[in-house]
Design goal:
Helix content is 71%, strand content 1%. With 691 residues, it is mainly alpha-helical. Keywords: Cell cycle, Cell division, Mitosis, Repeat, TPR repeat, Ubl conjugation pathway.
């Protein structure tokens, strides 16, 4: 901080006090007012206990630059000047030769010419009309001659620069004003006249301003004019830390910084603190009313308007506040009348021209709005609001190439303002330059979409171009944050588009989710209900289709299983007697050939027959079903099988068994199955299965 501001505060206060006296002597009222506010901000710095020589120097300063013989003429001229009788003041000191009375003569002449020009200027006239500029030609010649003879001090060179600037000789005016700043570094009016001539940061940094501490205030002020708000805010914070924390001017400038950054709440807070510390201040009160207008604080707006009228109803700022009050009440015609009154008080009042253009736009009076915006541009070419308003006006009358030109200028002045980028994108889209339009919309999203519509515009454009996937992606990004969307109709349009998209993709969950959100919109409710009915019917159809598919699949599976079981159940059923005879004959033959061990194994094989019968019967019941099972129950019961004594095999038994096997068909029983054995033993056998 010591490197940033290396001057001691007592020395700063002394310089301010001396500059107040010098500017006051010459009638430079605005500079005197600013210097006095800065001096008051250093009230904690004590310089009253200075040496007597310092007090003597201050008293001498009040009459320095005035010849003793010219005291009476000067005092008379100064009194006329203070009551705005500029011609009388200039005439009173016309023959004076000392520096202060000579400057007062020239400056009073300039103020008289300017007053006549402004009084004859109506709200329909051109501010820079050539016949009005002829009045300054004589004064310019006089100043040029005085400068050629090196008779102009720093204050005179400042006036020379002001006249050059009024005649649009900006390059020469810039050189004169820089010379004045270097000669009189405490002349704040010279900095204010120089600032509008600086159009970019690079040029500002290249200026040779000298090493005086006043350059910090000029740099910060110009940064604000260039909308480099962060750079300006940093300088103001450093100045507050350096000892100017009580300065009203710094507080007001920081409020303007937050206003430009669209931090409305912080700006309102600073303005309220400013009005508490200085309740009768009207400077920048028009900006405060704009903030209240944005926040739609009608009660506070009404209170501010009444307070401004009670302080001074003939100030341009007061008329502007009243105009904003009627504008927020949608009484646009009355608002225009108050803005016109402000312009009669000060035809170079920039805010009134711009706001009046807005009111004409509300009344659909496009021609009057264009004229008002053009006047605002004449007053200050860096006013992006006027350029943006011109673009909107020409867009309404469908002159898109004109609107594109003005939107480009507004974008150059505010390169990080998404509103300018969205306006450019819309204009490019209307001119069928979709590639440029897409770039503008994406950049608007990158820098921070103020209005919250850039992503919606981008999605709509992709949808128009047939790129549905990208459009859906943009709609999803747009609909993620519902609170950020300022245009609810656009939000519901996005919901409806996503619902239709997912409905076509058969993603009914997401489609229903977005469709339900549209039920809150009166315009989209009917369409959303119809879509929800369609989704419900398609869901029902899909469920029905799934059920039928499941039934068919289950039937096919069960039929395959039944076929397998039926194949297993298709067994040859023979009388037990045939089995016994065949087994007996087979076992006897084997026994004769193999001995006792073979007989035992055949015996075990015979024992397995009834076990196989018992295992087979439940399987048959399970496959028959309820109806067949009830029939089988009536004829078939659990049977105790008595194995007869195996006798010798009779001749022809094998042939009989073979014949029996050929005669039996699956699922039928012969009379022998329910009869008796060949030896008369009674048996009840339902069936026998042989693998």
């Amino acid at each position: 901080m010591q490197e940033f501001f290396s001057v001691l505060l007592p020395d700063v206060k002394k310089e301010l006090r001396r500059a107040i006296i010098e500017c006051s002597k010459r009638g430079l009222l605005h500079s005197t007012k600013w210097l006095a506010e800065m001096h008051h901000g250093l009230s904690d710095v004590n310089i009253d206990n200075a040496a007597p020589d310092d007090d003597h120097s201050f008293s001498e300063c009040q009459l320095e630059g005035i010849a003793p013989a010219e005291y009476s003429d000067y005092f008379l001229a100064k009194s006329y000047y203070d009551v705005r009788e500029y011609d009388r003041a200039a005439h009173a000191v016309r023959n004076c030769e000392s520096s202060v009375p000579r400057f007062l003569h020239l400056y009073s002449t300039y103020m008289a010419r300017e007053k006549r020009r402004l009084d004859s200027t109506t709200d329909q006239a051109n501010l820079n009309e050539p016949n009005q500029m002829r009045d300054l030609a004589d004064l310019l010649a006089t100043l040029r001659a005085e400068h050629g003879r090196s008779r102009l001090d720093g204050y005179g060179i400042y006036l020379y620069g002001v006249v050059l600037k009024a005649l649009n000789l900006n390059k020469a005016a810039e050189q004169m004003l820089l010379s004045a700043v270097r000669l009189v570094p405490m002349l704040w009016s010279a900095y204010l006249e120089l600032s509008p001539l600086i159009m970019e940061k690079k040029k500002l940094l290249s200026l040779q301003l000298g090493g005086h501490w006043m350059r910090h205030f000029f740099m910060a002020h110009t940064y604000l004019e260039l909308y480099l708000n962060d750079d300006g805010l940093k300088i103001y914070e450093d100045l507050q830390a350096a000892g100017f924390s009580k300065s009203i001017y710094l507080t007001a400038q920081m409020a303007l910084v937050y206003h430009n950054k669209r931090d409305v709440d912080k700006a309102i807070e600073l303005f309220q603190a400013l009005l508490e510390s200085d309740p009768y201040r009207l400077d920048n009160v028009d900006t405060y009313s704009n903030l209240l207008f944005v926040k739609e604080m009608k009660t506070e707006m009404a209170q501010l308007a009444h307070k401004a009228v009670s302080i001074n109803k003939y100030r341009p700022e007061t008329c502007c506040v009243i105009g904003n009050y009627y504008s927020i009440r949608c009484d646009h015609q009355v608002a225009i009348s108050y803005f016109q009154r402000a312009l009669k008080l000060n035809p170079k009042y920039l805010a009134a021209w711009t706001l009046m253009g807005h009111e004409f736009m509300e009344l659909k009076n496009t021609n009057a709005a264009i004229q008002s915006y053009r006047k605002a541009v004449e007053v200050n070419k860096r006013d992006y609001r006027a350029w943006y308003g011109l673009g909107q006006a020409y867009e309404i009358i469908k002159m898109h190439y004109y609107s594109l030109y003005y939107f480009k200028i507004a974008h150059q002045l505010r390169p990080y303002d998404s509103r300018m980028l969205v306006a450019l994108g819309e204009t490019y889209e209307k001119l069928d330059k979709c590639e440029n339009s897409v770039k503008c919309y994406w950049k608007a999203c990158d820098v921070g979409d103020i209005e919250g519509i850039a992503m919606y515009k981008l999605a709509s454009l992709h949808e128009k171009l047939g790129d549905n996937e990208t459009a859906v992606h943009c709609y999803i990004m747009y609909c993620e944050d519902e609170r950020a969307a300022t245009d609810k109709q656009s939000l519901y349009q996005g919901f409806m588009t996503l619902a239709n998209y997912y409905e076509k993709k058969c993603d009914y969950e997401r489609a229903a989710y977005y469709a339900y959100k549209c039920l809150d919109s009166d315009d989209r409710k009917t369409e959303a209900k119809a879509l929800l009915k369609t989704i419900d019917s398609r869901r029902s159809a899909e469920c029905q289709k799934k059920k039928s598919t499941t039934v068919v699949a289950t039937a096919e599976t069960s039929s395959e299983d039944e076929m397998e079981w039926e194949q297993l159940d298709v067994r040859v059923r023979v009388p037990f007697t045939s089995i016994a005879d065949k087994s007996t004959s087979t076992s006897t033959a084997a026994a004769n050939a193999a001995g006792p061990s073979t007989s035992a194994s055949s015996t075990r094989r015979l024992r397995s027959v009834p076990e196989r019968v018992r295992r087979t019967q439940p399987s048959q019941r399970s496959l028959i079903g309820p109806t067949a099972n009830s029939t089988a129950t009536a004829t078939t019961t659990t049977t105790t099988i008595t194995i007869p004594t195996i006798s010798e095999e009779t001749p022809g038994s094998s042939t009989a068994a073979t014949e029996t096997l050929d005669d039996i068909t699956p699922g039928t029983a012969t009379s022998e199955q329910q009869g008796t054995t060949h030896d008369g033993s009674s048996m009840e056998i339902s069936s026998v299965s042989i693998d």
